[in-house]
Amino acid sequence: MNHRRLGQQLWCGLLIVALLMMAGCNAGSSTGDKDSNSGAIALAQEFAPYKEIPVQDTAIVKSYQVAPDLSNVINAKRFDFSDNARTALVKNGFVVLPAMGHEFFMTYELNRYDNVPNLITTDAVVHNYHLFYSHLLQNVEQEALIPELKKSNASLLQQAERDYKDLKGTDWENAARRNLAFFAVGSKLLNPDTRIPAAVKTEVGQEISLIKKHDSTELSPVMAMGTKPDLIEGLKEDYTQYIPRGHYAKTDDLKQYFQSMMWYGRITFRLKDADETRSAILMTLALHNGIGAREWEKIYSTTNFMVGKSDDIGYHQYAELLEQAYGKNLTPIKITEDSQGFDKFRQLAKDLKPPVINSIPIFDATIQPDRNKEVLGFRFMGQRYTLDAEIFQHLIYREVTENPAGERRMLPSGLDVPAAMGSSTAETILKKQGAFEFNKYSTNMAKMQKYIAGLNDEWHQNLYWSWLYTLLPLTDDKPDGYPSFMLNKAWTHKELATFLGSWAELKHDTILYTKQNYAEMGGGGMAEIDDRGYVEPNPNLYARLASLTAMTRDGLKMRGLIDQKDSQNMDQLYELVLQLKVISEKELANKTLTEEEYELIRTFGGQLEHFWFEVYRGDGLESRSQISDFPAMLIADVATNPPAEVLEVGTGYVDNIYAVVPVDGTLRIAKGGVYSYYEFPWNAADRLTDKKWQEMIYNDKAPALPEWTANYRIKGTASINYAQN
């Protein structure tokens, strides 16, 4: 795709969006007002509307029981189960068994070869949206955002040099010098050939060194310029965040973009510090006067659509306050000469909302009691507010205090997210784990549950929120009338793993932009075998996923950010998910499927393989034999307990699920693929990359799966009895 044409299309498409955004960047939250959320929703509609797809989910499947000897299952003799696997299959109507699947499509292609009925799982379907989301985001970054960031860096670094030269000898000299260093760091990270101005060479070198080592939390040399280092009052930065991970570890360009954007997204110019605020004002003035503003808007607006709005004060809020405090037609010299304007600006800024999520390493309440004062400030391209990060923020220390044993909840659990979104199963597990024993945990969880239950159009403000909305049906217990294998405790735990597996993929794909909360300190066999399969009936999820797929495709198409081939692939995914919705509705209504629908189920693996090839072809994928180089397993750190610990969540091998399903009046065993979900604390200085995690999996070095997965996942075996063919 031509970069120049892409950039022109992007800019034209974002003109209206940029005007809408002048109202502000702060995200809505459970403690925010409706106007903030309304702005986010309006902005999303300018990118692409979210169109709800109607669902017929009346469920009248007749209840059934599996005979202890499987005698009422027509293809039971084709499978040899270990005793414990057979027991679980009889008891629950399904069982998940460990497997060594590298990708979902392999499970289904093997089924087709062995004439085993497919069980199309929600896991397999939502996983394919992740593949495309990650692929499209990477394309946008490489073809549009990296070139725009290079231009923005060059313009703002030049302006910072001019400001420093013009403001020498004034009270604003150090602030201008800090900005020179700030943009020199961002520029050097993106382009190693960047010339560093002599005036800031020492501090920039120190900052770059800390970022490249990425193994500690330290006072930022750039932010400490002109001050005496102070461990309590100085701005501390967690340099472990600069470890390139997710898809950003693939190429040098992506690694450099990751570190440059991480720098711009994390560094806060705190309002409590007058000199840091002067730096923020000079930055805002440069953008307000058109220096790098076009490029800034392109980057911010695009990532807003993909991920969300900044959680911190940004350019738009400060630009509005600039005019209120100083007037119009401003220059750096005019601002430095107006001390009353500066005082007024700081006073006005105190009324701005603090970030919902704290991502700055600060001390606890005994040392820094006013958290909002410590974290309120300006970020050049602030990391984004996300609903799950807010959930975490309210459920860890300091908002949740100690339990009766005097322990502090310094890291959240992935289970906090589905529990806050309504999963009674997740809540029950958290109670067993002792989470509700922490003071204020129960109260804060109830507040988040009430807030989330009241959300409506807010779910559709960007792709990140809409992805979570897609997973929402997985938090509901299935009513009577659903297939019997979906009406038991074990199934609710399996759906929890599906939710968390897809959520881990979401966190992995958006690891650069989302804010982390910080605690304080084929072929076929014999055609005569009846291998008609089944779709896990979840029509609400499939409808929402189809809407999300369309929103993704249309939003990128409107700005010229998706090529024809990827657009066609998204069309195919959209049609596939819609067909799965229709099949689910028919299954729940006890309606007979057509031969074409059974054939779609039978050939599902081939469609998944096509999508897999399309996503990775540009990364060097040429044949199925390379599957171990492009596996489904991934990892992401989602929360930090500074200075030494993070919470990692991820997926491992694709496991096998066997379920007894009703097809055309008879019961049969169908087989599919499901996530294996991992969650564990890890050393912050060793934030895991996908490659390292995959090596841990391959070498059997991964931590144990969460205990609650034992409710549905059995350490048993199953094999195909080929003699029964």
Question: What's the short version?
Answer:
The chain has about 725 residues and is α+β, with helices and mostly antiparallel strands. It has helices at about 5-20, 35-45, 85-90, 105-115, 120-165, 175-190, 200-215, 250-265, 275-290, 295-305, 315-325, 330-335, 340-350, 370-375, 385-395, 415-420, 425-435, 440-455, 465-470, 490-510, 540-560, 565-590, 595-600, 605-615, 690-700, and strands spanning about 80, 95-100, 120, 215-220, 235-240, 270, 375-380, 515-520, 535, 635-640, 645-650, 655-665, 665-675, 675-685, 720. The chain contains 25 helices and 15 strands.
Query: How many beta-strand segments?
Result: 15
Overall pLDDT confidence: 91
Strand order of the largest sheet: 8-10-11-14
Poorly predicted regions are: 1-25, 32-36, 522-527
The amount of helix comes to 40-55%
Describe the model:
With 725 residues, the chain is an alpha+beta fold. The protein is built from 25 helices and 15 strands. The protein has helices spanning 3-21, 34-47, 83-92, 104-114, 122-166, 173-190, 201-213, 252-266, 274-288, 293-306, 315-326, 332-336, 339-349, 371-375, 387-394, 416-420, 424-433, 441-453, 463-471, 489-509, 539-558, 564-588, 595-602, 604-616, 690-698, and strands spanning 79-81, 94-101, 119-120, 217-219, 236-238, 269-270, 377-378, 517-518, 534-535, 634-641, 645-651, 654-663, 666-674, 677-683, 718-720. The protein has a four-stranded mixed β-sheet with strand order 8-10-11-14. A three-stranded antiparallel β-sheet has the order 2-12-13. Strand 10 and strand 11 (645-651) form a beta hairpin. Helix 4 (104-114) packs antiparallel against helix 24 (604-616). The radius of gyration is 27 Å and the shape is elongated. 56% of the residues are buried.
